[in-house]
Amino acid sequence: MTAEHLPSGPAARTVESVVRNELSGRVAGHVVQAGVIHGDVHAGDLYVHPRRERVVPRQLVLPPRLFTGRTQHLAALTRDVAEQDDAGATVAIAVIGGPGGVGKTALALHWAHRNIDRFPDGQLHVDLRGFAPSGEVMSPEVAVRGFLDALGVEPAAIPPGPDAQAALYRSLVAGKRMLVVLDNVRGSEQVEPLLPGSPTCTVLVTSRRRLTGLVTRHGARPLDLGVLTEAEARELFTRHVGAARVATEPHAVAELLGWCAGLPIAISVVAARAARHATFPLAVLAEELREESERLDALDGGELTASLRAVLSWSYRALDREQAEILGLLGLAPGPDIGLLAAAALAALSRPRAHAVLQVLEDASLIQQHVPGRYRMHDLLRLYAAEQADEDRSRDDRATALRRLADFYLHTAFAADRLLEPHRPLMEIDPPLVPGGRPHRMPDRAAALAWLDTEHPCLLAIHRLAVTRGWHRMVWQLAWTLTAYHGRRGHLQDDLAVLRAGLLSARRLEDTTALLWAHQFLGAAYALVDRHADAFDHLGQALDLAQDACDVTGQIHTHHAFTWLWEVQEDDQRALEHATSALRLCRGLDQPVWEADMLNSVGWFSARLGHHEQARTDCQAALALSRRHHYPQGEAYALDSLGYLAHHTGDHRKAEDYYQQSLALYRNLGDAYDEAIILDHLGETQAVLGHHDRARHNWQQALELYRTQHRAAEADRTQSRLDEHGDREHRNAGLPDGGD
Predict the structure, then answer these.
(1) Are 109 and 96 contacting, i.e. CB atoms less than 8 angstroms apart?
(2) pTM over 0.70
(3) Which of 51, 84, 387, 393 is at 20 to 30 A from 422, Cα to Cα?
């Protein structure tokens, strides 16, 4: 398939709309290399929405306010980075190692903020969760995807394959003076795909393990971090509780610091307890700690001493019952953090009451509000909290709380999905199984997208929990609910993962309707990553199930999905047959927006096959329906189809008018992907009319969009058209410009 044969017309994009709007989000585009469609592609081959302004990521979280000591380590880190920079052969990498709770992240962030002027092109930061108590280690692919978002790459520009995504990431940071902080790493294999290829970049890595592979293969400089010195520990404690109090009870302070064993996290918890109870003698606190230490074991495979567990146990028991119970539940909750409303659902509390309890936990340094309204805790604290929940609450109580949280996420995600895609087929979501999991209501599409962006890691975590717990209906329903968002944001691998699990759960449910849609959505997801054989297989099963069940809606949208798959196979006749079947079935329903899409699809394939009069009738009907039912995207599609028809039947002035109207709609919708196509089409028509200045202007705008969107084939074709047009203009110099 050549670039000119790409399915770029409005009906093709209408079919894409079904594959991703009706079947969960929009298809980003097609990729052509050497005449064939590929699944694993380079970023430059993709169609995307651009960001008009240069993005400089500033992802560093705040440094610890009371950072103390580590003077030698900071100097060593500066020296190691400078020496590698001077060598200039490869990226500078420093690996900060040490046991959990020793302050590796604090050191990295303190150094990064103190040296931020070294990195004017931005700073990237990711917690890879290498030692998360839940076992949810972040994959390099997910981290790369987050970096691409931070670097301003639009979702449709992101290639489906992890290797291509990593290549795009390296390309974007090449030559940039950037800092990349890779926090909480489990192993070298987790880091290597995230390493820039440019010697202008610097990478800070923190890990509890010695990452020998990074040292031997990439020349990383190791920096081992031990516990604080006695003087540093005393200074940190003093900065928390005040010099006067420390001077009053020097022996108690020494004992407290002895139990903390120089671990910054332990010192901070003890100091927070002491600061919160300013009237308590420090000797009393030291005595409580001494009494409990006898029954504590080491945490995390022996990395931590018993004294840390004593501190955590003591801090936990200082809470009242409600606070302790909520801390325990937070330890059970999956995901990297939790929002206020989700925490309220987990604990079955009102929002104000939940906020009050979380504030107490934050004041006690047991959780951190790292961004407004979102809370997380150190991995070791989370592990301890989960253990306490296991001891203090029954299995049924724990399961009920987690089910409340899962219900909150499912029903809120469903509400967000209806705002994103109000016209796609509606599924019934089961009501919450337990009281208390009230969903969050959002006012508009922008709020829905913002909520989904923030909660996406937690939604994936709750989906994995549902799989583990055997909540099969939730597994399937949450997978379906997330497909539209995944399509819009380009989370194609996540979409495949949840939909594959959803299909397995649909089979376990023995629910024919769920199985039909599971096959359909999974077929669409495979189509988006160019696995066409798998797509045809699952869509074929979906169509068989829909026909056997006389499910008209299922048949309509499965036929419509097939039209796109046949178009990329360059079989317009087979595509038209499916489009015609979808339209025929649709006319039996009261779904005018769907009918508009189907009419436009039939018209588009008729036009491609040369049936111009029939195509015009269908596309005009699609336009009228879209306008009548306030469906601007369908209106833009239909106008583009009519522009194509007018252009190919010689009525170029009418084509120009149709394209101008379509262009205005796409710009109003913020659809830069289709805007580039319309500008390209408009330029063609204006060139035929002799409006050469206008044609060049529109082609130049299209070229800029194509390049911004990494659509290499279209960019090359448009540049060639501009060059050729310029040569022709030069040869015809002196002739009038057709009315410009």
Answers:
(1) no
(2) yes
(3) 51
